[in-house]
Amino acid sequence: MKKTLYCLILFLICILSACGNTDESYSNDYVSNVTTASTSVSTTVTTEHIHKWAEADCLSPKTCLDCGKTEGKKGGHTWQEATCTKPKTCTVCGKTKGKALGHKWKKATCTKPKTCSVCGTTKGDALGHKWEKATCLSPKKCSVCGKAKGEKAEHKIGYGGSCVYCGQKMITDDKSLEEYLNNKYSEGVTTPLGDVKNLSITVYKGTTNYESYDYCIKIDDALTIIEYNYEYSREYTQSQKNETANILKNYVKNMADDVISIFPDKKVTGGFYYSYYKYPHIKEGYTSNYNLTWTNYELDSLGYVPREYNENIYPSGFRWASKLDEIEW
């Protein structure tokens, strides 16, 4: 009985070995040893293959990562949208479509350069602030963006004695007038015959009946050398002397017009002036020296500045009072 059973098993194994299996779904083999009482037989048994599929893309169809088998068709492109600098692009194969969008520039500002509103790329430099000077009304300010910096400035006195920014009347008496004139005119002028520099200007207020003016503007005389060169020197041409006279006259006239604009209802006189004692130890021989004298009110019948105050004489515009001058300019 046993011998018959063994023969039957051996017969079945031989049949299976002869037939084999060629199905593509089987690819893994293993060897099984079957042992009987009289002999040992080896045979190959296959197991089913499970595909590991990679999805189709624009380069290849669906593909098994293990055996390379493919299925279906290639897929479409995986597009990345266009940017400022790159066209629409496939992230798999690199194919492009259309054109780059180009930057959308925002203009440069005081603090930022020209900038793309989409990607943030910058170009060039920031413009920088355009500062307007500080005034008594506001600090230093950028005329473009309005940014303020620092503190307000002091009042700036202009023609007529008022602040050029706020209009406030700044010069109201002899002291404020004197400060203003020294700040504006003490630098002096340069002439072909020499410099007239670092001048001291004094304002006197008329308070008695022996003073015909309300204000007297005296420029400490620095003309001694120029007077001599103008009158006597042969080292300078007449053209140079004439030019010197015109420069000095313009300097004095500008100052006079300024004062008259500040106090249009006041009687004012002025010019270069100095005085001295010929014998200073005993205070004898007092001498006054005038040059480029002017007034804004009527002179006396001889062409001199009146010696007494007259209520019936009113300010009536600039005029030279040259009869008082030491030399004729």
**Low-pLDDT residue spans:** 18-38
What oligomeric state best describes the polypeptide chains here? Answer: single chain
The Rg value, from CA coordinates, equals: 55 Å
- What percentage of residues falls in helices of 4 or more residues? 10-25%
Name the structural class. alpha+beta
- In total, how many beta strands? 21
Q: What letter string, H or E per element, gives the SSE order? A: HEEEEEEEEEEEEEEHEEEEHHEEE
Output mean pLDDT.
85
Number of helices: 4
Percentage of residues in DSSP E strands: 25-35%
Main sheet?
A: 5 strands, mixed
Q: Largest sheet, order of strands side by side?
A: 17-18-19-20-21
Cα end-to-end separation: 165 Å
Please tell me what the overall shape is: rod-shaped
Please, could you describe this protein's structure?
A hairpin with a 2-residue loop joins strand 15 (188-191) and strand 16. The chain is an alpha+beta fold and 329 residues long. It starts with a helix and ends in a 9-residue tail after the last strand. Among the domains are: 132-170, no CATH class; 174-324, no CATH class. The strands form seven sheets. A five-stranded mixed β-sheet has the order 17-18-19-20-21. A three-stranded antiparallel β-sheet has the order 3-4-5, with no helix packed on it. It has a three-stranded antiparallel β-sheet with strand order 6-7-8, with no helix packed on it. The radius of gyration is 55 Å and the shape is rod-shaped. It has helices spanning 2-19, 174-185, 224-231, 238-262, and strands at residues 26-35, 40-48, 53-54, 62-64, 70-71, 79-80, 88-90, 96-97, 105-106, 114-116, 122-123, 131-132, 140-142, 148-149, 188-191, 194-197, 201-205, 215-220, 268-279, 284-295, 319-320. It contains four helices and 21 strands.
